[in-house]
């Protein structure tokens, strides 16, 4: 079976891409931002969060804020000291550690009214397992992996 040039290029690209998973910015609530009257559990339900992703909380400064809390404070809407608040209106939180994370708004009544977000952060995914590649060797006779690729590319483009 002859492999098409496209297939071979895809294989080469797959081998040399540093990683399949790309960290991304995730705007909480999408266009709604961080506000009252939005269902953040429904919003989060169909999403997967990975280590390296960044949560972005967008809101009008002075109308909301963001506190990272634990599960207990999340349930009871217990607001931590003001010094722990994020208040820029475009707060970025890098998801650095896998596990459950809880966020609430500290403005009066907002958390109880549903301005609270709980997510589970998954460990970073690894690229799909590839069959073991022959160890690259600096040999001049082209038996190394690099030589194999060059030969294939020459085959394609000659
Ligand atoms: C959760 O957070 C609250 C408020 O910051 C704190 O008083 C409490 O001890 C914490 N609970 C746990 C289990 O860490
Ligand atoms: Cu709020």
UniProtKB/TrEMBL annotation:
One Pfam family here: Cu_bind_like
Chief localization: membrane
CDD domains, A to Z: Phytocyanin (cd04216)
Signal peptide range in chain numbering: 1-23
UniProt subcellular location: Membrane
Gene3D superfamilies named in the record: Cupredoxins - blue copper proteins (2.60.40.420)
InterPro entries named among the record's database cross-references: Cupredoxin (IPR008972), Phytocyanin-like (IPR039391), Phytocyanin_dom (IPR003245)
Keyword presence, Nucleotide-binding: no
Membrane topology, from the record: Single-pass type I membrane protein
One cellular component term from this protein's GO annotations in UniProt: plasma membrane
GO function terms (MF aspect): electron transfer activity; metal ion binding
PANTHER family given in the database record: BLUE COPPER PROTEIN, PHYTOCYANIN DOMAIN-CONTAINING PROTEIN
Protein name: Phytocyanin domain-containing protein
Name of the gene this protein is made from: Vigan.04G360200
